[in-house]
């Protein structure tokens, strides 16, 4: 890959400039193993420089009119859409997802820029009736300051934009470290921010192979006001502990273990469609992907047949090829994890309905797989699978399945299908998850609050609530009036 992709950038970006590094690291295409680029490998010292650039920019950026920030975010959004094809290609090359999904991700990311450009104008304060007549109580909302962020490889564009759009809309400045596997999408975003006229130091990107070193600066540098993370619960806990030292504001979007429940009154065809969308999107590598499928016993066999037929139609292949539904997994470690989960399930009594292995032993293409007779003691039901493995089990009663669905430390997304209005409310209210899809397998949207409860984290991205993660509340007491 070379100059034929103008948005291919291989230096880091802070203070409005492309910045080199003492060493570089390789980015490879998971579909082919081909090396795509060598990217400047930012050091922790450079992370400190980027934080300083963000701090320097904060005074003027936070003082700009909301309208001006909104206009810049909108210009950035338009550039994302104008370059949608090119950004999607870069994304597929480094991440593997089918091009159509990658294009969808660019549009999805851009939608947050539009949403928060509009929301930037609505950072309302309050006046509160005071207890005595010589006083007035006012509440202001102010940007927290410099925000640092660490993002994962599964949505190399949207996970960054979703955070940056909210942060920049409020007047915060932003420094992000993308995942080592997918820095090219992040650096392309920086190029478009530059073209959009986002001022120097407001949006900064540091690609690095030293996640731990950069993470320490991001979570412990006193110049940083807030840290926002999307990734695994295990890493999130470490970073939270690091943030505790300086009592930093944090947002944590961590792992999930989404249940998908099919009641016997459901529209089974719609449920199959919703399940496939929620399970196999990004080859199962999203934190809201279905992890456990519970089907009411009386429809379990019929449902399993329909699932099998639908899965047989899925095409696994290079995301750049036309008509492909699933690309490769991100790396060898991801493939090994999925293999181990499937082997453990089969050894513990699950049935293999289809799939169950890689397409060829030396590739990262794992076949879409269906297991039945899974139970909740198996690792495949307890851990986040992060792969194209659909694990079916059956249940008898509503109370039983609600108990099973909630019996997890995670609380990100849950899904269920039913046409009974009473049941819909009972189950939706009883599920201990931050997001619930009711007769719907795809729930993400810029207008809706994305986030979890329990060990899936806290904070919300998108929606009218999303700005609050980047705002401090200040109470003014006016006396002597
Ligand atoms: P995933 O399983 O999606 O790779 P991780 O939580 O391992 O989830 O990675 C998400 C992000 O966290 C990536 O950008 C990765 O580089 C970063 N990361 C991983 N370990 C650490 C760490 N110890 N400190 C800071 N960041 C980390």
TrEMBL record:
<dbReference type="InterPro" id="IPR010102">
    <property type="entry name" value="Succ_semiAld_DH"/>
</dbReference>
<dbReference type="Pfam" id="PF00171">
    <property type="entry name" value="Aldedh"/>
</dbReference>
<comment type="similarity">
    <text>Belongs to the aldehyde dehydrogenase family.</text>
</comment>
<protein>
    <submittedName>
        <fullName>NAD-dependent succinate-semialdehyde dehydrogenase</fullName>
        <ecNumber>1.2.1.-</ecNumber>
    </submittedName>
</protein>
<dbReference type="InterPro" id="IPR016161">
    <property type="entry name" value="Ald_DH/histidinol_DH"/>
</dbReference>
<dbReference type="GO" id="GO:0016491">
    <property type="term" value="F:oxidoreductase activity"/>
</dbReference>
<dbReference type="InterPro" id="IPR029510">
    <property type="entry name" value="Ald_DH_CS_GLU"/>
</dbReference>
<dbReference type="InterPro" id="IPR050740">
    <property type="entry name" value="Aldehyde_DH_Superfamily"/>
</dbReference>
<keyword id="KW-0560">Oxidoreductase</keyword>
<dbReference type="InterPro" id="IPR016160">
    <property type="entry name" value="Ald_DH_CS_CYS"/>
</dbReference>
<dbReference type="InterPro" id="IPR016162">
    <property type="entry name" value="Ald_DH_N"/>
</dbReference>
<dbReference type="InterPro" id="IPR015590">
    <property type="entry name" value="Aldehyde_DH_dom"/>
</dbReference>
<dbReference type="InterPro" id="IPR016163">
    <property type="entry name" value="Ald_DH_C"/>
</dbReference>
<feature type="active site">
    <location>
        <position position="253"/>
    </location>
</feature>
<feature type="domain" description="Aldehyde dehydrogenase">
    <location>
        <begin position="23"/>
        <end position="475"/>
    </location>
</feature>
